């Protein structure tokens, strides 16, 4: 910007304070002053070493993790403090500020208050709209992130910062509203679903950015819920799920969720919440790495937390029973991620590629395939398809789980391919399951991974539509065209689906007609390929200046163009998205 350039001051009121037409009575929360800034305390070490480690539960206070090695505090404790008990790694952290229902709000300045007000951080939607988003969250998201006390939240979310201290953290309320908005749209709201989620994200994210909430555990949950939101950009490096999950995992590891609480002072409920949160992080970190083709943040060799089991799931309310389908979904998904995690370990590139290492990798791949089949054969009845007439019927949970399984089959069998037919059948199965959910009106409620997995299956259909075998090409084109309406629906709320739809819709149109002279399937010119890709994605950039969002699809086109072998294309293309 030149020194003489002046920005015109905006007179427009902030749009984040309302969700538009239909949000008739948004509510402003009266925020009381919070605690001092914990991070600015200059007596933390003195207070920490002076405490009696037998006093106070880590569930009631901010907690900290101190391992047996590489920590100076552990070294100082026996001499300058009261010492540490063996095999205890979790302690109250100084300054000793008691958590209020999981929250330690920070005292903010008037300037900070103004910025938070501008973002709508202290505003909740109209009660009916908020109730709808909260209901949608617990019905359609919570089973994948089962770490919030449903009964307590539903009963108390209208009382944040109340005198009795029973209201949930404001950050948690805003994050739940955001997550609920990603799977359901309130019929009263007129704005597009994507815009509504964008405004709710701005409210929640402002509380994190300005460090309003200091409680580390609440920050973990908030970032987990942020990962369900995909903004209007395809950049999954500095925003969206990849970044949100990475932050959540780092905070969790700093808090010590990867280690068993052992003899630390913590009640059963607190231990259970930590345990479920850790395995939830493992589930989403594994699937995110699996879909994006990137390294994981969590490795099982670093953890000694007990495996999740059915007994860890309490009923949502007193007198109720845990939802069998939700419990089966989560536990089955965790077990599937064990297999995926081992498979990803076998593909890690570390070390020289010796004959022994290559052989060990091949053995691991074969073992993963066998374990995958064993996992599928052992699925509980709630996670298998039911027959309705001539077609298979899937619930939201059995559908998402089976889509993930089929995506695993596609990738497992695309490395050192032995059975191309199995890859084809699994790709078709993904589209079939999505069709079942689409016909039930549930497709918009699937988690983000299913969107990527539908794109994976459609890449397979697109490749088949270019087969020299006319019958294979016709079937591939039919499968592609059948799946396009589903991808189009998802594109209304997801930027990845939007770009994928524009690309694959163009592929279908070109496959159904005579290819033009500059068709990149026929041309060898990179310039023609670039021009076609820009035409598909609606870009006007010069060659070499690649927009981040279109990079995925340029890579996919080049892969399909350069690798006619079906298995090679399938294993590489998904890793670019």
SSE arrangement, N to C: EHEHEHEHHHHHHHHHEEHHHHHHHH
Q: What spatial order of strands do you see in the largest sheet? A: 1-4
Number of domains: 3
Number of strands: 6
Fraction of residues in helix:
40-55%
**First CA to last CA: what distance?**
34 Å
Pfam family, one: Fungal_trans
Domain Xylanolytic transcriptional activator regulatory: 241-314
GO molecular function: DNA binding; zinc ion binding
Protein name: Xylanolytic transcriptional activator regulatory domain-containing protein
Topology:
Blueprint: E1 27-28, H1 44-50, E2 63-65, H2 72-80, E3 90-92, H3 110-118, E4 123-124, H4 127-140, H5 150-156, H6 170-181, H7 193-209, H8 216-226, H9 240-255, H10 268-292, H11 324-346, H12 355-377, E5 386-388, E6 391-393, H13 396-412, H14 420-439, H15 448-464, H16 470-491, H17 495-511, H18 526-537, H19 548-562, H20 566-572
Antiparallel strand pairs: 1-4, 2-3, 5-6
Provide an overview of this structure:
The strands form three sheets. The chain has a two-stranded antiparallel ribbon with strand order 1-4. Strands 2-3 form a two-stranded antiparallel sheet. A two-stranded antiparallel ribbon has the order 5-6. Helix 9 (240-255) packs antiparallel against helix 10. A hairpin with a 2-residue loop joins strand 5 (386-388) and strand 6 (391-393). The chain has helices at 44-50, 72-80, 110-118, 127-140, 150-156, 170-181, 193-209, 216-226, 240-255, 268-292, 324-346, 355-377, 396-412, 420-439, 448-464, 470-491, 495-511, 526-537, 548-562, 566-572; strands at residues 27-28, 63-65, 90-92, 123-124, 386-388, 391-393. Residues 1-5, 7-12 and 514-577 have low confidence and may be disordered. It is built from 20 helices and six strands. The protein has three domains: 15-35 and 101-312, no CATH class; 38-92, no CATH class; 385-576, no CATH class. The protein is globular. With 577 residues, the chain is mainly alpha-helical.
């Amino acid at each position: 910007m030149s020194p003489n350039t002046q920005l015109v001051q905006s007179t427009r009121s902030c749009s984040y304070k309302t969700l538009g037409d239909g949000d008739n009575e948004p509510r402003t929360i009266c925020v009381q002053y919070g605690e001092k800034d914990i991070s600015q305390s200059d007596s933390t070490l003195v207070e920490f070493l002076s405490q009696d480690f037998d006093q106070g539960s880590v569930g009631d206070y901010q907690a900290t993790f101190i391992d047996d090695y590489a920590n100076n505090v552990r070294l100082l404790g026996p001499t300058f403090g009261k010492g540490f008990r063996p095999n205890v790694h979790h302690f109250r952290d100084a300054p000793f500020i008691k958590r209020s229902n999981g929250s330690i709000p920070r005292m903010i300045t008037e300037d900070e208050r103004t910025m938070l007000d501008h973002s709508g951080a202290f505003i909740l939607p109209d009660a009916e709209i908020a109730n709808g988003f909260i209901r949608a969250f617990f019905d359609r998201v919570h089973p994948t992130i089962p770490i919030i006390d449903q009964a307590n939240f539903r009963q108390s979310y209208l009382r944040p910062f109340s005198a009795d201290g029973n209201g949930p953290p404001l950050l948690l309320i805003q994050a739940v509203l955001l997550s609920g908005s990603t799977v359901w749209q309130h019929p009263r709201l007129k704005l597009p679903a994507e815009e509504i989620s964008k405004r709710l994200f701005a409210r929640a994210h402002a509380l994190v950015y300005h460090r309003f909430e200091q409680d580390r555990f609440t920050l973990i949950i908030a970032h987990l819920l942020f990962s369900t939101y995909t903004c209007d950009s395809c950049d999954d490096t500095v925003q969206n799920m990849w970044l949100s999950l990475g932050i959540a995992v780092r905070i969790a590891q700093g808090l010590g969720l990867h280690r068993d609480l052992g003899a630390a002072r913590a009640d059963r409920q607190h231990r259970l919440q930590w345990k479920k949160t850790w395995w939830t992080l493992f589930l989403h970190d594994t699937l995110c790495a699996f879909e994006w083709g990137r390294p994981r943040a969590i490795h099982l060799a670093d953890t000694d937390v007990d495996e999740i089991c059915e007994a860890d799931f309490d009923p949502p309310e007193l007198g109720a029973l845990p939802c069998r389908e939700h419990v089966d979904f989560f536990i089955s998904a965790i077990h599937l991620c064990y297999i995926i995690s081992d498979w990803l370990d076998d593909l890690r590139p570390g070390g020289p590629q010796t004959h022994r290492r290559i052989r060990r990798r091949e053995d691991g791949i074969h073992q993963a395939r066998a374990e995958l089949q064993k996992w599928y054969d052992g699925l509980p009845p709630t996670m298998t398809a039911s027959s309705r007439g001539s077609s298979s019927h899937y619930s939201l949970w059995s559908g998402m789980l089976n889509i993930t399984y089929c995506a695993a089959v596609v990738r497992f069998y695309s490395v050192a391919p032995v059975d191309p037919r199995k890859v084809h059948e699994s790709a078709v199965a993904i589209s079939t399951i999505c069709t079942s959910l689409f016909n039930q009106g549930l497709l918009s409620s699937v988690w983000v991974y299913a969107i990527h997995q539908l794109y994976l299956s459609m890449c397979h259909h697109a490749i088949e539509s270019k087969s020299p075998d006319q019958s294979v090409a016709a079937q591939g084109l039919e499968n592609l065209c059948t799946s396009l309406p589903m991808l189009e629906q998802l594109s209304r709320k997801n930027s990845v689906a939007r770009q994928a739809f524009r690309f694959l819709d163009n592929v279908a149109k070109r496959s159904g007609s005579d290819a033009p002279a500059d068709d990149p399937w026929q041309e060898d010119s990179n310039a023609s390929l670039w021009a076609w890709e820009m035409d598909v994605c609606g870009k006007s950039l010069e060659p070499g200046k690649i927009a981040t969002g279109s990079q995925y699809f340029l890579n996919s086109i080049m892969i399909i163009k350069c690798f006619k072998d079906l298995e090679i294309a399938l294993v590489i293309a998904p890793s670019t998205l």
